[in-house]
Amino acid sequence: MLDRLARSSLARKLVRSFSSSSAQFNMPYTTIERGNPNSLDYRVYISDENGPISPLHDIPMYADAANKVFNMLVEVPRWTNAKMEINLKEIMNPIKQDVKKGKLRFVANCFPHHGYIWNYGAIPQTWENPEHLDDSTGCKGDNDPIDVIEIGYRVAKRGEVMQVKVLGTVALIDEGETDWKIIAIDVNDPDAPLLNDVSDVEKLKPGLLKATLEWFKIYKIPDGKTENKFAFNGEAKNREFAHKVIDEVHKFWQQLVKKEAEAGGISCANVTVADSPFVIQRGDAQDVVDKSPQPGPAQPIEPIVDKWHYVSLK
């Protein structure tokens, strides 16, 4: 392992050249907040330079296909608890907070963790088909875009479109469904040049993979759920394996948006996808945002959200 000083020096040298080549990845996406944060009407719409878009359908999967650089939509910034996610059923697929039994969902803090321990989000133009039985896990997909955990140093912003390189993946089995978690890093992170596969993660960030598995195993236990399980005994698969998984779920998304697969209530409205029967006019997309609740002040959060839960695995 490189000593800290040598590693830091090498990272600085490499990141300068890497960053200069990745400057082209900066995308002109912005967020439009509507409603009151911490309320049922809160939404975050995504816009490009021409107006509102669907982050699920209109943001390309690749920022740079030749170099396997992916776009990642950040749903949950690191250290936060609100379970924010792309709303699949609403037109233009805004980010909203998940709701359980009529209440906003916050992820429990399981000691020693606080909220999410990485930036959490999804790769656009992907879909884990709930009718497809995965050969490697033996379980069907979870009906969502594929999840990404970004392990860089920076705390991202909700709705940010980050460019990442994929390092590997783990396969969470969540209530009998395959729920892939792609491990990635921001291409502009200082450690990005030194992280090229999942085997590099333990070298540069010792304990992070172990903590990641623990987090996913226990985070639902305070809500009365059982411990989550992983395929492959929790083994993290490498970059090549992860790329194949992403390619597969991208094909499922193509079938979805071209009406070759049953949508099951997913809104496929988009403004840019060629050959999609769900394309709508830009003005119609703007109307969706204009008719949503006006932005307002954040509502108070119950103190119980900050509680630390002490959970031990058997």
- Terminal CA distance: 33 Å
Q: What structural class do helix, strand and pairing data support?
A: alpha+beta
Describe the main β-sheet briefly: 5 strands, mixed, barrel
* Architecture per CATH nomenclature, i.e. the level-2 architecture: Alpha-Beta Complex
GO biological process, one term: phosphate-containing compound metabolic process
Cofactor: Mg(2+)
Family: Belongs to the PPase family.
Keywords: Cytoplasm, Hydrolase, Magnesium, Metal-binding
Q: Can you give a write-up of this model?
A:
The chain has 314 residues and is of the alpha+beta class. It has a single domain, classed as Alpha-Beta Complex (Inorganic Pyrophosphatase). A hairpin with an 8-residue loop joins strand 6 and strand 7. The two termini are 33 Å apart. The strands form five sheets. A five-stranded mixed barrel has the order 5-11-13-15-14. Strands 1-2-3 form a three-stranded antiparallel beta sheet. The N terminus is likely disordered. The protein is built from five helices and 18 strands. Belongs to the PPase family. GO terms for molecular function: inorganic diphosphate phosphatase activity; magnesium ion binding. Its main location: cytoplasm. It is an enzyme of class 3 (hydrolase).
